Structures are given as C-alpha cells and as structure tokens.
C-alpha cells in the first residue's frame, strides 16, 4: 500500500530559512528550501510505499534550518523540531485519511533551539491500498505523543500541490481519486464547522485544542488534570518564581484597560478578585446586569511539565441596542503565581453574538508589588490589558474590534469604580500631598554661601585679588619716589610703559570684580520677592513648587548664566529667585497665587537670564501648561519641556509640582455664576453632578470643570453637522455622533479673538450664523472642526440653527467677555456703549432709561386698584404674586433677578421669559431691564421697563419702552391708580413700522388688561383669606 504525505505550510518558526525532512521506515525525502519567511508555504506531495501498518511504524517529520552561508544545497545547521505520527492512527481515520491538521513541533533535546518555541506545521496523510494488517479492522493507537493545536482547512487547492522532485517521490496511478477523496473530506469539514466551533468554545484557554484525530485517541497523555481541594492549595502547587526564572508576560496588543495602584498586598488582591464565590465578582455581575453566573471549580491542568490552575465561568450578558442577550464563557488560566506576583490569562468566547464564532476576546491580569515611600502597609499594582484573536478572516474585523474595545472600556470603568470602593487607590497626587511637598521643599537647606563661593570663584576675581595684594605689598615695601616729569605734588604718574600696562590690567580686573559684586547684590535684593508668600482670599488657589531646571541653554555663547522663572496665570505674575551661574539650577521654592474668582485655564512659564532689572532679561525658553489637558496626578509631579530654539536643541526642562484647589467650594461657583448672570441678563443654574460627570467624561476634563449651558445646533463645514454646543467655565466644546462618525473638539475662551453674528443667507437656510474666530496658532487641537482659516492663519468656526439664536449669542458673548476681558476693559466698554446715540442700546441689547418724558409716549392703559401703593407694587416685587400673575398673562419660564440699588432711591433688576403661543404665534423670548424710583412728592413709584423681543420677525429692529406710574388715588391711601405709557424706539428703518407699531400697541394693551385683572382677582382672594 502507499502512503501519501502532504506538507502544506508552517507557522511561527524561529528562523526564516527552513525545509522539511520526512522519514518513513528506511525511506527519506525532503521539501524545497523556503527563505525569507518564518511562515513558509510548501504545498508539496510525497508518496511512500509501505508493506503494512503495524504499531511502532511512524512517520517522522523533521523541520530543519538551512544555512545560506554554505555553498552546498540544503545544508542543515540545526534541528528546529520534529513531529512523530503513528501510521496506525492514520489507518484509524475515516477513509484512512487524516485531514489537514496543525501539529506542534517537539523541541529538540540539544542544539540552539532547545529553549524556544519551535512553531507548528500543517500536514495531511492518506493510506491507499490494502494489506494484511489493515484489512477488516482499523487501528486505534494506545499512546499518542503528537500535540495538535487546531483543525483548519487547506489554504490552497489540491492543484497547488507540487510534483515530486526525485525518484523516491512518485505519483500514484490513481492520484486523481485520492485528491477527489481529499476534497470531499474538506467539504465535510465545512459542513461540520458550526459543530466544531461550538466544541472549540468550550475548551479551556491555554490548553491546545484537539482535532478529530485526537478525539479518537487516548486523551490521557495530552494533559493531566489534578483536582485541587482548595484555591489556596492550587496556588501553592504553581511553580514559585524563586525556584525558576520566569519572565513577566508582555501586555496584550489591544491596549491597557486598567493600570492602578492599590493599598493592599498582591496576594490579598489576587484572592479578592479570583477566589471561589468572590463577593466582588457577585457585586460586579449585579452592577453589569449579568445573569446565570456559574463558576466552575479551580482545577490543576498539567500542561507539558508546568501545572496550570484553570477554571471556566459562564454567564448571560444583557441585551444592548445592537446585540441581543447571549451566553459568554470565560476560561481563566493562571500563567504565573508566586508569593507576590500573579498573572491570569482569560479567554472569553461569545458564540451567540454576530460573528461570535470567528473571534475570542483575551484579557491579561497582572498583579505585581510596588513600593510607595509614603504608603502605610503593602501596596500592589493591577494592570489589565486586552486583545482579540480571530479564528478566521472576516470583513467585519474592524467593526468587531471597535465594538469590543468600547464594551471593554465601559465594563472596566465599572470594575475600577467598584474596586476603588473596597481598596484605597494610591494616586500620585494623593501620595504627593500639597502640605507635605511644601514642607519638604521649604526644609531644603539654603545654599547662599555655596552659591556665592561658586559665583566669585573665577579667574578674573582670583587674578584681581592676587594682583591687588601684590601691589599693596609692593607699595608697603617701597619708598615714595621723587617728583619728575610733569608730575606735581599729589599726582603720581607711571614712570614706564610697563607700569602703565600693569595699572591698566589692575583697573580692568577691579572693574570686573565691581560689576560682579553689584550683579550679585542686585540679584540678592530680588530674591524671595514672591517665594514663600501665602495666598490671600477665597477662591481658586494655585500653588507651584519649583524644584529644579535641567540643561538650560543661553542664547549667547556662554557656559554659565543666571536663570530665574516667571509664572503668569489669569493676568497675575509671580517670579522666582535668581540662581547665579547655574546651568542646572536647584530652586526648591514654593510660589502661591492669590485666590482667583475664575478657575485658571493655562499657566505660562518662561525662564529668563538675569541681567540687571527683570524687564531686561533674555528668554531661555518658555512653556504653556494647560490645566484641562493634565490630571491632578500629572500636575503633582510634572516635568515641563521648554520651547525655544536653543531650549529645544538642549532639551531644557523644568520640574514643577502644581496644586490647584478651590478653597470656597460650591460658593465659588455660585459667585462666578452670579457675575455671569449680570452680563447675560438671565439666571444660570448649576448643573446636576450626573450631567457634569458625563460632560467631563465625554471630553476628558478634570473634575473641577463644571457645565454652564448646552445648545443643540449645526456645525457648518463642507456639510452641516448636527450636534451639541457645550459652554463651561473655561471651554467651548462641540460633540456630534452621526451613525458612529464622531466629531469632538473644544477650545479655551482665552483662545477666542472675536465673535461675530452673520446675517442669514441662502446657504445657511435662512438661519443667522455665529462666527467664532480664534487667535493665531491657538486651538490647533480643534482644527478638524473649523470650516476655514483666514489669511492671518486664524481658525474660523461657524455655528447655526440654534433654537433661540439671540439668547444663545448673547450668552456666548457675555461668557467670553467675562472670561477674557479685565475689569478695566469691561468698564471702558460699558462707558463707550453708554455714550452711543441710542440710549436703548446696551451690551445685553436692553437699557434702563430713568428720565423718559411721558409726553412723548402714548398712554395705553389706566385703572384704579384696591390697596395702597406698596401693595400694588407687589406686581413688580419678584414674589409669588408676581409669578402667578405673569404666568396667567402668558409668560413661560419666568425668571427675575433681585432689585439692586444703583443710586440712592433708584433700583434696577432684569427679567427673562417666553411668550406662549396664545400671546404670540411665534412664541419668542423676552428680556427686560427695569428701573424704579420714587415719584415726585413721594406720591408713589415710577417704573421704566425696556422690553427686547427675540425670535420674532423684525424683533431686532425695535425696543418697547413701558412706563408705569403707580400713585395714590386722591386723599384715600387705601386705593391707588396706575397709568401705563408706551413708546416704540426703532433701531433700524423698516417699511412696516406703522403696521408693527399698531400690532404692538394692541397686544400690549390687551396684555396689560390681563395683568391687572389677575391682580384684582389675587387681591380679592387674599382679602377673603384674611377675613376667614
């Protein structure tokens, strides 16, 4: 009978020049040499004549390394590995054909490939013909020494197999029949793919997956399973790292899901996470809505010569918007377990999800000890990485990886939060406590004497001192010379050119010493000007610990210089001391900024070379620290690279420790909001913690950032992108997610150079545009969201289709001015705007007119009201009565500020509300600015009300001025009369002035009637309650 051996391909060989040598009895044959790849493809067929199939007859497949340096062909320089296949196992297969199977090559006993993984090889074997030993029965081997990894189909067809190259490899006359049978077997394999995949998903991770061939053999030799009596016993059976050197495995290629330090010993953390019936696992399953959780027992699996502790966990995952609920199987294997180091490999299969049979998700847990000098007790570090393995190629690979990444990220965020509730995390910011850092820095010994010695220890000073002493000794030992030449009494001139040169050298050296001394004294006078001072006030406190600088470089070609550092934040400046003649200065200084009302966004750092007054220093490099791009952990120990031509070439750096604290808590945010409300003209509320947390998580912002407003709008680029515009204390952010295509960016308020309102156009679909222009070279991280870049290199962002464009634009303008303009600049702008010809115009489009002439206004309403003047003025008092009356008159979302005294007897406040569709078909918003003052002779009150209409046709063309006169009705103080006057101030000319004026007159007349009728009803109801 004949034996057909098909050598198809190899995988993961340690070298690239390989060939295969086959041994069948006394016959040998070999493949061609494959070069340039560690995954060779041969696709060659070999035929051997065998007399029969007996136990002990094996096919030996050896993988050899070919040395290209030798001139002889196929010169072997070492055995890589070999596979031994009993012929009786081939005869025991269906149709005496072993389907294409991956065989793991056995390591050689000696040579250079002893201690490394030797790869695997894909083989197929078939017996054709009859013999006495095989007729009427099929043999099953009693022993199996071949390790198989997986069943896979051949990548090429039977036509790709090469022909024989020598006399020992010959074609059989019925080869076509053999190949047809081979193809039929592969076809059967395809039909069994679902069955095989299901079986593969139930295998334990780390154990080689067996083929149909192994299922027919004795499995007892492949792996030995030892049941452990307890989890702790299984860990003790694992080889200790002290007994053998075992490297820590690398993180998986998918990335890091969690890297955190905890105040707990590694062994306790390992037991907490993986012990049977772990309470943490139960709480995590409940948090992630996992059901039917079943944990298998930990068992010891003998893998090669290394025992592995393994278990299987199954559960039902909840349904999502895209994926139905399905079963998941976790195979957990300990790869390393010593006294203080643990590595657990987890393979997760989800066959019920779409394409679930094509991939497995892999997780690697690593628990290692860490040493924290400030931590009390043992601490450990938990690192969790992930990867994904595809068993077959699919066009959905990218989508599967993206979905797995997002799902794992969300799951392990919950994992991290739950674990942090049980064990304290060791964050760098926590370990580097502010008070401790300050105490450590301030306890550093002062080095004034040492720095002075190093500064004056120079050749010029030494020469000047020596020469001066020499001259003084010379003068003491010499007698006064006689007067000669042009000398006279009191004037002694040099008597030779040598004396003249010596005198000149001495004078130059003394001048140099004098300049150095003056420079040193001047630097000492500036020392400590801002260092060590305590911050004043309540608000945002910025504390900087300036530790040291490294590799500072000067613009001038000098070796040593005198550096100092200038810090600028929110318009305030602080300066460090000067370090003389230092290229790697050690400052160890603490600098604090006074309390700031607004949270700082950036800190500007610049290093100068001292040369007299500070304003004449030469810059050695600068840097900008964005507080929104650094976590508190990173700021607590920050190494800042300096920017500049010489600084970048020398890799200059500063080591800082920065702490940003809010000393006043929530009150600081409330004070900031109240200040912004005055600019905006409407009330702003602090968002809920859940809303703030989601906002911070979406844009990766620090926890102190709080959200003010959010608007739905379109970002105009080549095509409009619908999303949300977020306004916070320090940034303007935009986010959009359209069918998985995300657009996300933000920039600082300080980056904005100008904000403009553009009129509606056909391209904007009739919607006005809000144009935000950034400063040059600012906001480059948000460049992908900009529509264009002007000739000056500034980024331009266009936003449109706001629900209430006027209110949104006013809010954004007010926040920008509040954030970027100083107090003096805002006062100057207000003064300029108060001088414009139109007294009704004002930063918020409303103004208060205190001396309006009623003769120029039209009387639209008059009535007598019960009650005295103070009772009637409750209509404008801001209390519950006013709110009820305004709601009945058609006002929605009615908000008002409190009355504030501006001048003696004059009070002001602001209102904002919306009309319902009964009052106005267009709805629309209203902002009002009201001012009240006593009437002449103290007969009552005069209230002026400037009304600005928004989101109504031509609402920006006019303002409505109302004047309420509430006075006593004759001599009876128990009744009052109210007269209301109205005037329309046109800001822009329009053809429909008369028509619009008539409509406004009628609408306000009817609305005033509703307001005062409602007041009468409320007053009657209150009187009835009083009588009862």
From TrEMBL:
Subcellular location(s) per record: Membrane
C2 domain location: 1-103, 517-640
Main localization of the protein described in the UniProt heading: membrane
Domain VASt: 253-427, 856-1019
UniProt key word Transmembrane: yes
SUPFAM superfamilies associated with the record: C2 domain (Calcium/lipid-binding domain, CaLB)
Keywords for this protein: Membrane, Transmembrane, Transmembrane helix
Bilayer topology term: Single-pass membrane protein
GO cellular component term, pick one: membrane
One Pfam family hit: C2
Identification of the protein by name: C2 and GRAM domain-containing protein
Organism expressing this protein natively: Eruca vesicaria subsp. sativa (Garden rocket)
């Amino acid at each position: 009978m004949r034996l057909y051996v098909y050598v198809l391909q190899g995988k993961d060989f340690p070298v690239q020049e390989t060939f295969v040598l086959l041994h069948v009895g006394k016959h040998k044959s070999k493949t061609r040499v494959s070069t340039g790849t560690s995954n060779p493809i041969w696709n060659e067929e070999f035929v051997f004549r065998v007399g029969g199939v007996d136990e002990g007859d094996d096919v030996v497949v050896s993988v050899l390394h070919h040395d290209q340096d030798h001139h002889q062909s196929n010169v072997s320089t070492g055995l890589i590995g070999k596979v031994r296949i009993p012929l009786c196992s081939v005869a025991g297969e269906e149709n005496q054909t072993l389907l294409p199977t991956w065989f793991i090559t056995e390591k050689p006993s000696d040579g250079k490939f002893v201690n490394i993984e030797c790869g695997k090889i894909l083989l197929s074997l078939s017996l054709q013909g009859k013999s006495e030993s095989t007729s009427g029965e099929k043999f099953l081997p009693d022993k199996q020494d071949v390790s198989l990894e997986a069943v896979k189909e051949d990548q090429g067809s039977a036509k790709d197999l090469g022909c024989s190259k020598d006399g020992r490899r010959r074609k059989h006359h019925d080869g076509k029949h053999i190949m047809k049978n081979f193809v039929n077997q592969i076809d059967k394999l395809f039909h069994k793919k679902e069955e095989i995949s299901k079986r593969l998903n139930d295998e334990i991770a780390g154990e080689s997956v067996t083929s149909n061939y192994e299922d027919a053999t004795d499995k007892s030799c492949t792996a030995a399973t030892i049941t452990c009596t307890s989890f702790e016993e299984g860990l003790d059976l694992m080889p200790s790292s002290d007994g053998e050197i075992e490297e820590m495995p690398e993180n998986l290629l998918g990335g890091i899901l969690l890297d955190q330090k905890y105040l707990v010993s590694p062994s306790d953390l390992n037991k907490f996470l993986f012990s049977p019936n772990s309470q943490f696992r139960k709480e995590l399953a409940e948090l992630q809505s996992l059901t039917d959780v079943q944990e298998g027992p930990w068992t010891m699996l003998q893998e090669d010569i290394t025992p592995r502790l393994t278990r299987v966990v199954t559960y039902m995952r909840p349904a999502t918007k895209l994926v139905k609920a399905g079963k998941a199987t976790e195979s957990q294997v300990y790869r390393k377990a010593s006294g203080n180091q643990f590595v657990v490999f987890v393979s997760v299969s989800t066959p019920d999800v779409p394409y679930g049979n094509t991939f497995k998700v892999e997780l690697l847990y690593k628990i290692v000890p860490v040493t924290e000098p400030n931590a009390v007790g043992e601490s450990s570090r938990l690192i969790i990485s992930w990867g994904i393995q595809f068993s077959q190629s699919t066009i959905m690979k990218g989508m599967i990886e993206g979905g797995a990444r997002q799902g794992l990220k969300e799951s392990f965020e919950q994992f991290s939060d739950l674990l942090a509730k049980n064990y304290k995390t060791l964050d760098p910011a926590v370990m580097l406590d502010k008070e401790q850092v300050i105490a450590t820095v301030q306890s550093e010994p002062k080095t004034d004497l040492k720095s002075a010695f190093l500064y004056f220890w120079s050749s010029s000073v030494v020469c000047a001192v020596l020469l001066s002493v020499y001259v003084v000794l010379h003068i003491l030992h010499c007698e006064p010379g006689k007067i000669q030449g042009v000398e006279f009494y009191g004037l002694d001139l040099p008597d030779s050119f040598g004396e003249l040169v010596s005198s000149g050298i001495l004078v130059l050296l003394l001048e140099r010493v004098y300049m150095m001394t003056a420079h040193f004294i001047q630097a000492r006078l500036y020392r400590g000007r801002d260092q060590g001072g305590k911050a004043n006030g309540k608000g945002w406190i910025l504390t900087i610990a300036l530790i040291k600088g490294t590799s500072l470089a000067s613009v001038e070609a000098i070796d040593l210089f005198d550096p100092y550092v200038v810090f600028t934040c929110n318009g305030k400046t602080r300066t460090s001391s000067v370090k003389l003649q230092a290229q790697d200065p050690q400052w160890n200084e603490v600098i604090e900024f006074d309390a700031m009302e607004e949270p700082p966004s950036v800190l500007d750092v610049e290093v100068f070379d001292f040369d007299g007054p500070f304003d004449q220093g030469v810059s050695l490099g600068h840097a900008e620290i964005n507080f929104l791009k650094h976590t508190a952990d990173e700021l607590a120990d920050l190494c800042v690279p300096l920017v500049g031509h010489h600084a970048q070439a020398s890799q200059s750096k500063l080591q800082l420790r920065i702490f940003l604290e809010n000393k006043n808590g929530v009150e600081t945010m409330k004070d900031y909001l109240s200040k912004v409300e005055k600019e905006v003209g409407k009330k702003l509320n602090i968002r809920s913690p859940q809303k703030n947390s989601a906002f911070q998580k979406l844009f990766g912002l620090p926890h102190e950032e709080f959200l003010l407003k959010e608007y739905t709008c379109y970002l105009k680029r080549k095509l409009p992108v619908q999303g949300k515009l977020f306004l916070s204390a320090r940034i303007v952010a935009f986010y959009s997610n359209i069918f998985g295509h995300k657009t996300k960016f933000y920039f600082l308020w300080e980056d904005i150079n100008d904000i403009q309102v553009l009129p509606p156009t056909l391209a904007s679909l009739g919607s006005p545009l809000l144009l935000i222009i950034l400063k040059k070279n600012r906001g480059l991280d948000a460049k992908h969201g900009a529509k264009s870049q002007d000739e000056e290199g500034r980024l331009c962002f266009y936003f449109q289709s706001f629900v209430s464009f006027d209110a949104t634009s006013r809010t954004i303008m007010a926040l920008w001015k509040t954030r970027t303009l100083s107090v003096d600049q805002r006062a100057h702008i207000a003064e300029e705007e108060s001088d414009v010809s139109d007294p009704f115009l004002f930063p918020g489009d409303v103004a208060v007119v205190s001396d309006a002439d009623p003769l120029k206004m039209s009387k639209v309403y008059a009535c007598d009201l019960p009650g005295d003047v103070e009772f009637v003025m409750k209509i404008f008092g801001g209390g519950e009565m006013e709110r009820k009356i305004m709601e009945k008159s058609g006002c929605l979302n009615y908000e008002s500020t409190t009355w504030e005294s501006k001048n003696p007897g004059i009070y002001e406040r602001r209102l904002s509300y919306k009309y319902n569709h009964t009052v106005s078909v267009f709805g629309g918003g209203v902002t009002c600015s009201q001012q009240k003052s006593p009437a002449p002779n103290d007969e009552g009150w005069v209230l002026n009300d400037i009304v600005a209409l928004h989101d109504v046709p031509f609402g920006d063309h006019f303002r409505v001025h109302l004047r309420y006169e509430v006075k006593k009705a004759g001599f009876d103080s128990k009744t009052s009369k109210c007269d209301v006057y109205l005037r329309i101030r046109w800001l822009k000319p329009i053809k429909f002035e008369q028509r619009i004026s008539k409509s406004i007159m009628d609408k306000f007349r009817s609305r005033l009637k509703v307001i005062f009728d409602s007041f009468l009803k409320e007053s009657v109801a209150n009187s009835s309650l009083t009588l009862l």
